Amino acid sequence: MFTGIVEELGEITAVENLGDACRFRLRGPVVTDGAKHGDSIAVNGVCLTVVDHEGDEFTADVMAETLNRSSLGALDVGSRVNLERPTAVGARLGGHIVQGHVDGTGAVLERKPSDNWEIIKISLPADLARYVVEKGSITVDGISLTVVDAGPDYFTVSLIPTTLALTTLGIKQPGDPVNLEVDVVAKYVERLLGATK
Are 32 and 58 spatial neighbours (Cβ–Cβ below 8 Å)? Predict the structure, then answer.
């Protein structure tokens, strides 16, 4: 489990095409500290498994299902990525419950800067709109955020300077894809109440 509190802005240093999958090599000195084979690390909100670790870099295999359902397939050498290690039992839950299981992708639609924050409007797939509510939680590229406004095919978030400086949302431009994970509690409630898609 993750919390959506990004630990560092990492970088893709190599991409190996494996046909129906790929292997990423990523640099992240914070998340690699103490990392070992089999550990989980969220990369732009996608839970990946550490295959190998050397120095401040690690490798992770990404299968076709993940490439098709997330924006990871658009990454290349030099791409910046949000990195987070799983939350330790008993640690503070700074964001919200994040599984690292991407529900879909959206795209940055527009950015509205202000003196002390920035509003970003992001497209929302129709099948996810029912899970996104004003003042609710959503994960964008692995970042736990509060929804400011929720429309039928978009939502907005307000970003503080720290988020802009320390995550990929500081550099994403209109048209850039982002990974979305809706609040898992909403999905469980829907299922328990017997709602249909």
Answer: yes
Collect all residues with Cβ–Cβ distance below 8 Å to 160 and sequence separation of at least 6.
116, 117
Tell me the three state secondary structure of residue 56. Answer: coil
Whether residue 71 contacts residue 179, with contact meaning beta carbons closer than 8 Å, is answered with: yes
58 touches 28 (CB < 8 A): yes
- Distance in angstroms (rounded) separating the CA atoms of residues 156 and 134: 9
Domains defined for the chain, CATH in brackets: 8-84 (2.40.30.20), 104-194 (2.40.30.20)
Contact 142, 5 (CB under 8 A): no
Matching residue, tokens 């330790």: 88
Measured in degrees and rounded to the nearest 5, phi and psi for residue 121 equal -100, 130
- Which residues does residue 104 pair with via DSSP β-bridges, in sequence order? 180
Flag whether the pTM goes above 0.70: yes
CA quadruple 27, 139, 109, 161: dihedral sign? negative
What is the DSSP secondary structure assignment for residue 130, as one 8-state letter? G
> Per residue in 31-61, pLDDT tens?
999 999 999 999 999 999 999 999 999 999 9
Nearest-angstrom CA–CA distance, 169 and 179: 11
